[in-house]
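Ops channel
N.P.: pipeline sanity check, posting one input/output pair.
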């Protein structure tokens, strides 16, 4: 019995040592920020052969990496559907979401947002010979949007029927192939798609599409992480880092 007790004591002691070294799966990850994104939104996030973090690249990915470095941490990226990001934050699957996410009142009910780091607006991508000159011209047209993106919200609020896609490339391909008349999407991303696809152009309508602000989302009440993110964003905004990233990726292939 004493021998068995000694064996058990040894096992327990070893378990405690291992647990202390790995923090039982807790502190082992405390030096990592896991960012969720939707890598279908160039130039903010996309998949590349040699990305800033693994296979992921873009303005947001570079920002995520810098936030982690500013706080002596490592950034990890988990790619998922845009509509899944807020749920992933709430259930602890990711620590934060950085995905060209617009601050919206309905989203603020579910997560907390950082300070804004980018000003954006929605535009329309059409073929060069299109007669669409303003948002109201979409009334009798076939409209494509990306599921969960602000463009979908805008078109829905206008009361127009539309078809949603999970990827921007899929929506733009519909337009290129003549299967739809217009794609509503963020201006910076629209510019990239127009550069990559001959025969397309951008139509703006400032009266129909208000400006919007991108921010990073975290779990409600996670003030410790939010403070770290905000401090880093403030530095990058003041020293021109984010402005430089916008220029860098707007001219990238």
């Amino acid at each position: 019995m004493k021998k068995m007790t000694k064996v058990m004591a040894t096992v327990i002691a070893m378990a405690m040592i291992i647990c202390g070294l790995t923090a039982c799966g807790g502190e082992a990850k405390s030096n990592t920020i896991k960012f969720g994104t939707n890598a279908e939104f160039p130039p903010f996030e996309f998949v590349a052969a040699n990305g800033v973090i693994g296979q992921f690249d873009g303005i947001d990915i570079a920002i995520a990496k810098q936030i982690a470095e500013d706080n002596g941490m490592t950034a990890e990226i988990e790619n998922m559907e845009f509509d899944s990001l807020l749920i992933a934050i709430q259930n602890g699957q990711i620590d934060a979401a950085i995905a060209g996410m617009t601050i919206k009142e309905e989203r603020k009910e579910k997560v907390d947002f950082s300070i804004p780091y980018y000003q954006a607006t929605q535009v329309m991508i059409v073929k060069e010979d299109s007669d669409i000159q303003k948002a109201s011209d979409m009334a009798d047209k076939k409209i494509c949007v990306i599921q969960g993106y602000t463009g979908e919200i805008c078109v829905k609020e206008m009361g127009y029927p539309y078809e949603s896609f999970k990827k921007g490339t899929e929506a733009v391909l519909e337009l290129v192939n003549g299967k739809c008349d217009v794609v509503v999407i963020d201006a910076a991303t629209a510019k990239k798609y127009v550069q990559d696809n001959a025969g397309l152009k951008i139509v703006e309508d400032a009266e129909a599409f208000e400006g919007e602000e991108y921010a990073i989302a975290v779990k409600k009440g996670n003030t410790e992480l939010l403070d770290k993110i905000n401090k880093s964003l403030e530095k990058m905004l003041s020293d021109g880092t984010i402005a430089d990233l916008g220029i860098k990726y707007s001219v990238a292939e």
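N.P.: looks fine end to end. Residues 1-28 have pLDDT under 50 and may be disordered.
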